[in-house]
Amino acid sequence: MSIVEQNVSPSLEEFYADIEAANLPPLWKYLGGMITRQPVYDAVPFLWRWSEVYPRILQAGQVPIERGGERRVLILNNPGLSHLYTTTHNLYAGVQMVKPGEVAPAHRHTQSAIRFVIKGNGGYTAVEGERCYMEEYDLLLTPRWQWHDHGNQTTEPVIWMDGLDINLIRSLNASFFEPYPEQVRPSDKPDNNSLKTYGGGALRPAWQKPYNDSGSPLLIYKWAKTYEALQQLAQVDASPFDDVALTYTNPLTGGPVLPTISAWVQMLRPGVHTQAHRHTTSAVYHVIEGAGSTIINGQRFDWQKGDFLALPPWCWHEHLNTSSSPALLFSITDTPVLEAFGLYREEAYTDNGGHQPIVD
Amino acid sequence: MSIVEQNVSPSLEEFYADIEAANLPPLWKYLGGMITRQPVYDAVPFLWRWSEVYPRILQAGQVPIERGGERRVLILNNPGLSHLYTTTHNLYAGVQMVKPGEVAPAHRHTQSAIRFVIKGNGGYTAVEGERCYMEEYDLLLTPRWQWHDHGNQTTEPVIWMDGLDINLIRSLNASFFEPYPEQVRPSDKPDNNSLKTYGGGALRPAWQKPYNDSGSPLLIYKWAKTYEALQQLAQVDASPFDDVALTYTNPLTGGPVLPTISAWVQMLRPGVHTQAHRHTTSAVYHVIEGAGSTIINGQRFDWQKGDFLALPPWCWHEHLNTSSSPALLFSITDTPVLEAFGLYREEAYTDNGGHQPIVD
Amino acid sequence: MSIVEQNVSPSLEEFYADIEAANLPPLWKYLGGMITRQPVYDAVPFLWRWSEVYPRILQAGQVPIERGGERRVLILNNPGLSHLYTTTHNLYAGVQMVKPGEVAPAHRHTQSAIRFVIKGNGGYTAVEGERCYMEEYDLLLTPRWQWHDHGNQTTEPVIWMDGLDINLIRSLNASFFEPYPEQVRPSDKPDNNSLKTYGGGALRPAWQKPYNDSGSPLLIYKWAKTYEALQQLAQVDASPFDDVALTYTNPLTGGPVLPTISAWVQMLRPGVHTQAHRHTTSAVYHVIEGAGSTIINGQRFDWQKGDFLALPPWCWHEHLNTSSSPALLFSITDTPVLEAFGLYREEAYTDNGGHQPIVD
Amino acid sequence: MSIVEQNVSPSLEEFYADIEAANLPPLWKYLGGMITRQPVYDAVPFLWRWSEVYPRILQAGQVPIERGGERRVLILNNPGLSHLYTTTHNLYAGVQMVKPGEVAPAHRHTQSAIRFVIKGNGGYTAVEGERCYMEEYDLLLTPRWQWHDHGNQTTEPVIWMDGLDINLIRSLNASFFEPYPEQVRPSDKPDNNSLKTYGGGALRPAWQKPYNDSGSPLLIYKWAKTYEALQQLAQVDASPFDDVALTYTNPLTGGPVLPTISAWVQMLRPGVHTQAHRHTTSAVYHVIEGAGSTIINGQRFDWQKGDFLALPPWCWHEHLNTSSSPALLFSITDTPVLEAFGLYREEAYTDNGGHQPIVD
């Protein structure tokens, strides 16, 4: 059959059947669902209460940590994306426990991770063998493709929040994983080496070149300094959308702590009611201290110490602290991912003094 | 019920049912599928023959270009990802036709696009109103969020390959789209303005700052210069994996033409059989001229002028040109996406002189 | 003597004598000369006529090129800075001749250099052994600390303009020089290798990383392409201060050709009279073709083909072409030096339609 | 006279006279002095003793601070460069005193400055009106072209070390200076605003973009944190050439505190004798605490608390602390200047266990 013959119009119905069968479907029929006017997301705003999480992670203590399963973690699984085991489309978060005497075995992967310590002092994460000792509310990093294991030589369980880019890496088809041949990667650096080397604020070893492509060389951010910085900033400045908010930085570059994840800490002062806005980045919040509310697309979530909250992208959101004590929130976002391609957008809610109507 | 009471172990089965119901599933059961040892991908290597595509895009001429459907394009739909209407997980490609006298209406979106002209001279793409006139084998760009429409004032249809980051933007939940209120955005710049401004090779207007965050300010790369550059490079250097290969660059930065898509042109010289390698980036090839073969994970694809070939990530691949004429390939890759997060990996196939065994 | 005793005021005159003797002079007496309200410069605007230069460089042919003296160059020595053998405070320029059969011996230095070919075709500069063959009006580079020698195997002398950062490097106390043990560094690359590799405009070998810290990897910019780019730009845009002006770029970065020197080519179209401005950068111009005038701080310099003109920093300047043919100027500037520290400033002359009064 | 006639060789002597007169001197006669084999410098290694400086800056108190003179500063004037009123070729340092009740008037200039507090608590530097209150051993910044004045509302004189790039800016012909119309620029920000905003170490306000082209947005680095960082680093690492050394950084970029000046603090532990090296950067040291020696090109300089030491570029140097207490040194260097152009070089002294012979 020549091209000229083929070009004789078949019935349109036959034509559509033919091109679908040839793996050549018509864009004009599907474009509206492929290139949407606004971001489309399946994740839902969701609150996990500490009162629900805490007993269950304790119960999980009956399950041993073993090679293959690797870690004792309850996934904060977004109901809208539950088959993907993720918290927002780009961010995965979970709650991990290491009991006294346990070691979670050494492995490495192309996923990057943060840990935020919820409960317990004295556990450690070893990164390339270097132990970083944890205290409550410290932030720890395990950058991409670095060996890491976790241990607890104290007499109490240690519990922390994990944050990783698991679903991003999956959607990029870029997951690599390797177990270390032993349970623990031997240590060749002193304990807390990175803290002692890079923990001095705006100072770094004079002989170091300012470069590290897998994230911050500072592997642990101590709570005492973080809290002090919040107190200082509160005296001079604040954001209308987030009140007193700091982002943890890579001291060698001023950039985010990890190439794919940004970490924030914020203080909502007593009586504060922020204005609503929305942005193309998603977030997972953890309540460090205090209580308050977040209104997401008109739905009110009342949270207190220990709770977790998922914020999908492009959702209007505002925060309230109606108590008489400050509320402290830790959060992770996927801002570096959107910014890498110029896709970060932010919009302020301007009606009604910046406050959304509550949907009952 | 107190925490202590809850902490009494239920049967393990009950425990698993309880945590799943609480949106707190156990990582240790799912980790193997979430953090895989090697990239997992659903895309398949696939060849679309020009002899199959060409008559169908001509037949599609019976369907008018209308607002809503926007464009007359047949999607190169990967059978492994067919419900997503994408060619690889990050890259979408299609074949578009504009008939004499038609105008594809102006719109803009957060997706970035390239066009590679397959057939016909004299069509144009207008970017922010500036018309870039096409000749065969030219590469054109429509960067993110810039108004663009396409027209054809000649007497023959114009056909080109589209390449966009549609599925990447979808998986990042970051799609914005806006139709222009008129069919055409009025022109306020001379025709071929960007070519005349930035087309001079390693020269730019002396008063311009070297910055443009949405991609190259040069919107059209003429084939005559591209072909000459291939001929020049062939005299002095070549890659063992790709023979004589050039990447189109943003002349203001030396970086990729778009933040999410890189474009290549390569010449496989007569008799060349490259060594196999694999990388974490995917690609869509189009055969400009000549004929040859690509072996992907042991499967041989014989291609000729006009064909399209999808290469999923992390697949071994090597190229052959057994003919006596050079074969010319154009391709797009998602390399900038992987490199943005340090996830680019490449591995050479070292067994058997670098050549895969053919799987029948 | 205790500090208290010393603190008894001596006579002020004695005090000043004492602190000067102690190498502790008083800032308050000298500050006005150290931190001036406007840039202070000793260079003068100056014109070297080709009719003066050309016979002298020919006469210089009687002096052989020898190790130690290294090169047959007449320095364009600024009368205001003549003891420094420099053309402006940061830029040195000279006129070099290599006669048929001669070789200027291989050496390297931390100074970076450009060459602009004034007369003769077929000479070459070898950089790290790779020969770049010159034609009239080509621009060549010899980046910092790369071995280079020059030769001429034709039957006519080859004459070019040299541009280096000699006085900048001297004022930074950072000069290193090394003669090659032989007259010529052996060649291990094909002739014109960099041109064939990087000369294709906005294309580069796909396997090359976009990085080179000593300047452009493209070592020769051919006049034919440069002239075409000027013609193209003239159709769409121009600067009010410089008319049709292009800067040569490093194709791997979009930045200047060398870390310390920027190179420009500009066309003053017939009848053009640009507006005056001034900037903190200095320049050395060479007239490629045509004739015209430049007014510097009210002083008019009429120039024609082959002439050289020094422009000190922060001098008002404007260009005229009163002829009926285009005038073409090549120039070097120290813009990258000023920009490295945020010291680039530019100011437009707004009185009198942008034109300076002429001082007789 | 035709060119051919001119080309008849005159006597060589006449030729040289002729080209010198024509401002076209022969490079081959002067090249050796222009492009030297190694850096040539006129600065000398030099020590200013605190016992000499302190009484004189007190005596200078008899001279009022007045507009025009602007500041009460004794210049640390290098004897080898004394006519230039500079300490090394790129770096100027001085000792400034503000007496109780005085204000040094507001001005701005393209020179960048650091201040290191030697004596007295409670003085302030106001930058763009924002007061930064000083305590002993704090480092303060006044970036390029920002209004600044200094005051002292305490009852004791405040004395600090100034460090500026005065001679670099002069050699670049890029000095601009402007007095503020009033004695003091009015304050529109809270005291210590930058400290409270950026002083939190590896944290910054979450809404701030990481960019500032004139230097660090953190204008004061408190000694308490600096000293703690030194103590921490001492536990895990040290340089063979500088022992325990930190560089102050711009927290938004990880880069130097100012575009032209880098600041260091280092601790030489008791008994340490570093290995000698040399580099193309120069430095000015100030002894914060303790006593020790530095050997420069074989000449031994014994220093103690309060002293200043100039190190010219490319001089071998090593440090000793033979006491039983740590010695603390502050220093400024011009490293960012050299690195901007790829001119930083460093060389270790390998003979004799890394130690220079002492020249008597």
Order the strands across the largest sheet of chain A as they lie in space: 1-20-17-22-15-14
Number-wise, the strands of chain A total: 23
The most extensive interface, with participating residues per chain, is: C-D, 93 and 93 residues
What spatial form of chain A do the alpha-carbon principal axes imply? Answer: globular
How far is the N terminus from the C terminus of chain A? 64 Å
Alpha-beta content class of chain A: alpha+beta
**CATH superfamily membership of chain A, which one?**
Jelly Rolls
The main β sheet of chain A shows up as: 6 strands, antiparallel
Alpha carbon gyration radius of chain A? 23 Å
Residue runs with pLDDT of under 50 for 5 or more positions of chain A: 1-6
- CATH architecture verdict of chain A: Sandwich
Instruction: Provide the domain count of chain A.
Output: 1
- Quote the average pLDDT of chain A: 95
| CATH domain topology of chain A | Jelly Rolls
Percent in strands of chain A? 25-35%
CATH C-level name of chain A: Mainly Beta
Helix-residue proportion of chain A: 10-25%
Q: What distinguishing features does this structure have?
A:
homotetramer, 360 residues, alpha+beta, Jelly Rolls, 6-stranded antiparallel sheet, 8 helices, 17% helix, disordered N terminus
Detailed description of the structure:
4 copies of one chain form a homotetramer. With 360 residues, chain A is α+β, with helices and mostly antiparallel strands. The first copy, chain A, has helices at 3-6, 12-21, 27-34, 50-59, 166-171, 193-198, 223-234, 335-340; strands at 46-48, 73-75, 92-98, 103-109, 113-119, 123-127, 130-133, 139-142, 148-152, 158-164, 177-179, 203-205, 220-221, 244-248, 262-268, 277-279, 283-289, 291-296, 299-304, 308-311, 317-320, 327-333, 346-348. Chain A contains 8 helices and 23 strands. The model of chain A is unreliable at 1-6 (pLDDT under 50). Chains C and D meet through helix 2, helix 3, helix 4, strand 2 and strand 3 of C and helix 2, helix 3, helix 4, strand 2 and strand 3 of D. Strand 14 (244-248) of chain B pairs antiparallel with strand 12 of chain C, so a sheet runs across the interface.
